Amino acid sequence: MNLLVQRDRATPNSTPGQLSIPNLFHCFTLEPAHPIPAGTYKVAMLRSPHFGCIVPHVLDVPGHTGIEIHWGDYPHDTHDCLLVGLTWAADFVGNSKDAFAQLMSVLPLDSANEEITITYVDYMLVTDPELGL
Q: In 3-state terms, the chain is what percent helix, strand and coil (to 5)?
């Protein structure tokens, strides 16, 4: 399963975007103003030390550790992670706990049995039929 994050141009405070899993899920995203590098990374479903529950962890990001996909509304909530939400405004995603619950309902909880990856694409400039772009 591949998650796709298509980023919009960053503001001084955040990097907005959209996350999709073709035919399964779609929501808005928010990352720090200087997010992790574009590319494809493995995802593992692991317990979050901060939230105390299972969340998707983005693995093997050069120069970054502890990257999670979780709920939150504002840039200060990102902590270098990817926030998900059902609504969007400048430097904000809303209904993030609902978006997170919906995302978790379509992800396999045992990432050891089904590989999960996430692809970050900057500024929606790239087209790639394999990624659904």
A: 15, 40, 45
Q: Which amino acid, one-letter code, is at 23?
A: N
Contact 97, 85 (CB under 8 A): no
Q: Domain spans of the chain?
A: 2-131
Per-residue pLDDT at 126: 47
Q: Residues 39, 44, 46, 51: is their CA dihedral positive or negative?
A: positive
pTM (2 d.p.): 0.89
User: pLDDT at position 111, please?
Assistant: 65
Q: What is the pLDDT of residues 33-69, one digit of tens each?
A: 999 999 999 999 999 999 999 999 999 999 999 999 9
Residue by residue, what is the 3-state secondary structure of 2-66? EEEEEECCCCCCEEEEEEEECCCEEEEEEEECCCCCCEEEEEEEEECCCCCCEEEEECCCCCCCC
The amino acid sitting at 120 is Y
